[in-house]
Amino acid sequence: MNKNKYFIASFDKLKLNYITIAKTGSTSVLYALHKASGDVYPIGKGPDSHLHNTRITDYISLTEAKDNGYKNFTVTREPVARACSMFYDFMFKRFGIGGGGGSIDFLNEFNRVRTTKNFYEIFSLVNRYKDVDRGKHFRTQSYYHILEDLINIKLEHINKISIIHPDIKVENRLNSNDPKLDLSKKELDLIHSIYKKDFNLWEGSI
Description:
Elements: E1 8-11, E2 16-19, H1 26-36, E3 59-60, H2 62-67, E4 71-76, H3 79-92, H4 104-113, H5 119-127, H6 131-134, E5 151-154, H7 161-164, H8 185-194, H9 196-203
Helix pairs in contact: 4-5, 5-8
């Protein structure tokens, strides 16, 4: 049972399953879900307190998400803004990429190419790999939309999560101050090519 394939966080007290798509405010949403469940954890205090850690958040398989009867939801982000957040995060804030369900080949090649800090080269690398091999941070958002009853909320409308459950209030956006990148037409065309399905997905979210 590969729980790293879709990263579905389950909250029994809320009767909710949350598909955590990277770079869509997922840390903030997880924090809000834990808080609504009565489980409050500090953010950024080490690996044991990090909300994505399996010792803190309970992840389930796709089959379990279909069968447990809970509401399924996720958050979608405008694809260009998400790509810029990916780039800024891994070029200037993290020392490397690890885990996340990606293939060893992708992780090794990414850690080599990232030293260039070149937007086009990095996403050209992403484009050469299948979704499942990229690791969670660089997968398409459409990859995670595999449940027919999935409620899809725009990141810009994050407060609408309260429609799903009145006790959930997303209070912080940890990466909301990331700088905007002035991308060239060549770079924008590449993002549109890689994440083309995500643009329709984002337009159709609430």
